[in-house]
Amino acid sequence: MRRKLSVILIILGLIVFTYPLLERGFTWYMQRKVMEEYEKIAQLTETIESEAVESNYFQLQRVLGDEMRELMEAQAIENSDHQKNQKPAVLPIGVLKIDEINLNLPILEGTSELNLKIGAAWLKETTPIGEVGNTALAAHRSHTYGRFFHRLDELEVGDEIQINKDKKNYRYVVYKKHLVEPEDISVLNRNQKDKILTLITCHPIDTATHRLIVHAVLEELD
Question: Looking at the annotation, which residues are catalytic?
Answer without folding.
Answer: 140, 202
